[in-house]
Amino acid sequence: MENNKNLPIRHDQLATGTSLIEFKNVYKSYGSNKVLNGISFTVKRGENLVILGKSGSGKSVAVKCLVGLTKVDKGEIFISGEDITKLNEEDLNRIRMKIGFLFQNGALYDSMTVRENLIFTLQHNQKNLTEQEMESAVKEALQNVGLEEAIDQLPAELSGGMRKRIGLARALIIKPEIIIYDEPTGGLDTITAREIIELIRNIGLKYNTSSIIITHDLTCAKYTGDRVIVLKDGLIKAEGSYKDIENNADDWVKSFFEK
């Protein structure tokens, strides 16, 4: 990414709070395919954790386990001190309302305007809001991503970068404690990717959210992550700051940085 010297690296300011998310010895298989093989890690309040890994390494399955979309075979996953592996669907939904998602493709409803997309998400998470309260929440979310002028547009009228930012506004509108970013800079040009990186950083600082960022983009990992873990075959191969990972002596980890 060009002109990135003005972006301080977040891992120089590591979060020191209590753990909001904790994986303890988590296993998950699909038939004979062992996807997670006893992974353990934490995410502190206000911390951005980047998960690096090649296709099939277990990144997406770890996130599905985190939100209870797939059941673990063994192990525990704590969110705010509650083991979500032992919760029923009603209690899982309560936990999910603390989590915002930025999907790789934005995942907006094509037939709805930007306003309607955001209100749909807000109504799903918060009942009995007045029209004025919803409109205020929509405008605040759009201000956070710099797209107030897009409020009445349809997704098809927006660029890929704008759709990604609207997707982020939709994640923010529920005021989540946790945000999960799935390839947030995937498919974007260099300038737009830089804008998304800055938004991720600024949102974390403004709202003290805890984030898990799944990415193949090393620049995104470098400038958004307080800490990075590298998955290989469902195991944590390396963990530390971006600089730690970049200087890791393991040949497989080094392969991420080969041009």
What does this structure look like?
The protein folds into two domains: 19-98 and 176-255, Rossmann fold, CATH 3.40.50.300; 113-175, no CATH class. A six-stranded mixed sheet has the order 6-7-8-3-9-10. Strands 2-1-4-5 form a four-stranded antiparallel sheet, with helices on one face. The relative contact order is 0.19. α4 (131-144) packs across α5 (160-172). The protein has nine helices and ten strands. It is of the alpha/beta class and 259 residues long. This is ABC transporter ATP-binding protein. InterPro entries: AAA+_ATPase, ABC_transporter-like_ATP-bd, ABC_transporter-like_CS, P-loop_NTPase. Keywords: ATP-binding, Nucleotide-binding, Transport.
Mind telling me the C-alpha Rg?
18 Å
Overall average residue pLDDT = 89
CATH topology of the largest domain: Rossmann fold
Q: Oligomer, anyone?
A: single chain
